[in-house]
Amino acid sequence: MTPDSHRLYESIILDHNKSPRNYGKPAQAAAAIEAVNPLCGDTFTLYLVADGEHITTLSFEGNGCAISKASASLMTCMLKGKTREAAVALGNAFESMLQKEPDAPVNEALLGDLMAFSGVRAFPMRIKCAVLCWRALLAHLTA
User: Fold this and answer.
1) Domains plus CATH for the chain?
2) Are strands 42-51 and 54-63 parallel, antiparallel or unpaired?
3) End-to-end CA distance of the chain
4) Are 6 and 118 in contact (CB under 8 A)?
5) What is the structure's pLDDT at 137?
6) Contact of 60 with 76, CB cutoff 8 Å
7) Would the CA dihedral through 120, 122, 127, 129 be positive or negative?
8) Alpha-carbon distance 31 to 71, whole Å?
9) Beta-bridge partner residues of 36
10) Which distant-in-sequence residues (6+ apart) come within 8 Å of 141 by Cβ?
11) 96, 105, 101, 93: which is closest to 121 by C-alpha?
12) C-alpha dihedral over 120, 122, 123, 128, to 10 degrees?
């Protein structure tokens, strides 16, 4: 990773933490999904509305570290309008990227802004923060 891309990725995480997108409970939500990491205290509720196979509304509220909040925010942005299948595929690709060695190649075109979390691979204890809301949503979508 170049120093410029590292700064860009760091700024994406800081921006989504400071100004999370799709934050708050919508007027109507078909599902409220809990995402909790009792080891670090991160606690979020995801709100999902789907029209058939497509995610029409995805928002969240709660508290957590910068990585978990930024990841939840970016997740809500990237999954709106996607099918359940596409959401699961992206979530699996994101977690797969985080499980790889820091120097391992990944599909940057597929992951887009989620590449901001590639630096988390160097800190295995923080991977749980990055995938917390993703795992909760994917468990719901595949149940």
Assistant:
1) 3-142 (3.90.1010.10)
2) antiparallel
3) 37
4) no
5) 98
6) yes
7) negative
8) 20
9) 43
10) 84, 87, 88
11) 101
12) 50
Strands 31-37, 54-63: pairing is unpaired
Q: Which amino acid is at 108?
A: E
* pTM over cut 0.90: yes
pLDDT along the chain (143 residues), means of 10: 59 96 92 95 97 96 97 98 98 96 88 93 92 98 95
Q: What is the 3-state secondary structure (H, E, C) of the chain?
A: CCHHHHHHHHHHHHHHHHCCCCECCCCCCCEEEEEEECCCCEEEEEEEEEECCEEEEEEEEEECCHHHHHHHHHHHHHHCCCEHHHHHHHHHHHHHHHHCCCCCCCCHHHHHHHHHHHHHHHCHHHHHHHHHHHHHHHHHHHC
Give me the pLDDT at residue 3, please: 55
Q: Please, which residues bridge with residue 46 across strands? A: 33, 60
Residue carrying structure tokens 């797969």? 96
Supply 65's token pair: 């570290």
State the pLDDT at residue 69: 98
